[in-house]
Amino acid sequence: MGGVSLQQVVPQIGALPSGPRDAISDVAGVTVGHMTRASGPVQTGVTVVRPHGGNPFTDKVPAAAAVINGFGKSIGLIQVEELGVLDTPIALTNTFSVGTLATAQIRHCIAQEPDTGRGLPTVNPLVFECNDGFLNDIQRLAVTESDYLIAHDAAGIDVAQGAVGAGRGMSSFQLKGGIGTASRLATVRSAVDKEDGTRLGSADELASTTTYTVGALVLANFGKLENLTVAGLHIGPTIAAQLKAHEAGPEKGSIIMLLATDAPLDSRQLRRLALRAGAGLARTGSVYGHGSGDIALAFSTAYTIPHLPARPMPAIALLHESQLDVLFQAAADSTEQAILNALWSAENVQGRDGHARTALTDLIPDWAAFARQFRMQTP
């Protein structure tokens, strides 16, 4: 992006404000690290999302996943569905590197807790993938276990986007895709008691309010160009005509959507939150095609769950179901924004066998001017 702020050039989604970084790391404690491999036919990498700075095996966070379309090869989802917690950081990579990163996560856990799998239960590695084989020579199996550790140890609050980490070789809407992130602030109103013991309704101006953060990070590798919709404008056919050369055929990509929040939710509520990522995905023009693996996972940092029964379980006041709508809105908006941020952050990449992807910003260098002209020309 040449140092230009994304917020100056990318269309902004929804009415909710973003956090200070407009990133998943606006949720306190969440960090992201990348390891990128970009050399000739090897265009791939690893991205790691850490839910907090400690060891998630001993201090787990509640989580849940929603499989919108299950064309994917992830590891760890069954146990997340059953137990509703994360054992490891979340790792993203290409399809053929899932096993390598799962092994890396197991080794890393054993290094931190040497009794893992012996006196302690086994660890549940959690790895998601998209197929970057158009740009990356995926058969080279270039990603290594050490790449996971590099990305893990590089995790911080400043999140690089676009053709970095696991997003290096990814395509989206037959353009260059990759990593995108965003956040939204959601203010929840709660009923409170008056001094005489009677209850104020949530609509009362004296009701208390609490602001929570919902952050999204996507690995965007999905979509057909003709379907591309940006901030409600169906621009795909216009861009297709401008690009001229792009492959036809069915959608074969995928997207992984990660949501973090500091709102106190349990795993059942987090699954409801994860499902709303699909609303943001659909707005960009996805139809969850047959060959597209579309998976969302949400976790909360509001509390941790101890691994061993010797430590007490937390006593948490969860949000009421009637208070979740604004969080659902934040999930949809931050997911849509993260997808756009991935497109706007991407750069042109040439990979294996001369395959190349064009960055959207090469085709739309000035979104405001493009959008004005598009609206004038569209009936």
From TrEMBL:
One Pfam family per UniProt? Peptidase_S58
Gene3D superfamilies referenced in this protein's UniProt entry, alphabetically: L-amino peptidase D-ALA esterase/amidase
Family the UniProt entry places it in: Belongs to the peptidase S58 family.
Q: Please give the name of this protein.
A: P1 family peptidase
Q: Name one GO molecular function term.
A: aminopeptidase activity
InterPro entries named in the record? ArgJ-like_dom_sf (IPR016117), Peptidase_S58_DmpA (IPR005321)
* Residue spans crossing the bilayer: none
